[in-house]
Amino acid sequence: MTKRIASLLLTVLLLASFTPALAQTPTPPPGPVYVVQTGDTLWDIAARFNVSVGDLQIANGLVTGDIYPGDRLVIPGLQGVTGTLISRTVAYGETLRSFVRQYRLDEAVLRKLNHLTSPTELYAGANLILLQQDGQAELTARTNLGTDETLLELAVRSGADPWTVASLNGLSGTWDGLPGDVLYLPGGDSTAAPTGLPASILSAVVDPLPASQGDTVQVKIATGQPVTLGGRLGDHALQFFPLEGNLQVALQGVHAMTEPGLYPLRLDVTLPDGSAQSFEQMILVKSANFKQDPVLIVDEETIDPAVTGPENELLLSYTTVVNPEKYWDGVFLLPVDVPYCLRSFYGNRRSYNNSEYIYFHTGVDFGVCSEAHPFDIYSPAAGIVVFSGPLTVRGNATIIDHGRGVYSGIWHQEESYVAVGDRVEAGQLIGKIGDTGRVTGKHLHWEVWANGVQVEPMQWLTKTFPH
Question: What global pTM score does this model have?
Answer without folding.
Answer: 0.78
